[in-house]
């Protein structure tokens, strides 16, 4: 699998990633390091534990990590969770199915990790 194929499989934006990081070598280094980042899993853990503050903080962190790597789907989900849990956004939170967003984030994260792991094995 090529890096472009990987980005396609995980709903990322390869063109944006190459525009940001300029070299596939750097993208390769950082996309593999994504496997060590626990922020997406922490969102799920904190939300399931009923810890909204920790879920917000983890989602905010995940949003940044995913956005920097142009992992579009994960970044969008993390952003939506962040905004729904942000203090002062009670109206948005009432309109948002945070459970569904967290479940979708968890599923998308699993797809990303599986594909990145397979890609990393070829490097």
Q: According to CATH, what is the class? A: Mainly Alpha
Number of domains: 1
Query: How is the main sheet built?
Result: none
Tell me, briefly, the overall form. Answer: elongated
CATH topology heading = Four Helix Bundle (Hemerythrin (Met), subunit A)
- Helix share of residues? over 70%
Strand content: under 5%
Please trace the helix and strand order, writing H or E for each element.
HHHHHHHH
Helices, by number, come to 8
Rg for CA atoms: 15 Å
- Structural class comes to mainly alpha
Distance between the termini: 10 Å
List keywords for this structure.
single chain, about 120 residues, mainly alpha, about 75% helix
Explain what you see.
The chain has 123 residues and is mostly helical. The chain has a single domain (3-120), classed as Up-down Bundle (Four Helix Bundle (Hemerythrin (Met), subunit A)), CATH 1.20.120. Helices cover 77% and strands 0% of the residues. It contains 8 helices and no strands. It has helices at 3-9, 14-21, 24-33, 39-48, 52-68, 72-85, 90-95, 98-120. Helix 4 (39-48) runs antiparallel to helix 5 (52-68), helix 4 runs antiparallel to helix 8 and helix 5 (52-68) packs antiparallel against helix 6. The chain is elongated.
């Amino acid at each position: 699998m090529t890096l472009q194929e990987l980005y396609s499989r995980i709903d990322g934006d390869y063109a944006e990633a190459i525009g940001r990081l300029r070299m596939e070598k750097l993208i390769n280094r950082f996309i593999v390091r994504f496997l060590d980042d626990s922020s997406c899993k922490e969102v799920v853990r904190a939300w399931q534990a009923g810890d909204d503050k920790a879920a917000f903080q983890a989602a905010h962190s995940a949003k940044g990590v995913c956005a920097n790597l142009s992992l579009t789907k994960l970044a969008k989900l993390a952003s939506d969770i962040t905004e729904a849990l942000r203090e002062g956004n009670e109206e948005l939170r009432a309109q948002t199915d945070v459970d569904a967003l967290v479940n979708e984030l968890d599923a998308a994260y699993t797809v990303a990790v599986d594909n990145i792991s397979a890609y990393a094995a070829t490097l």
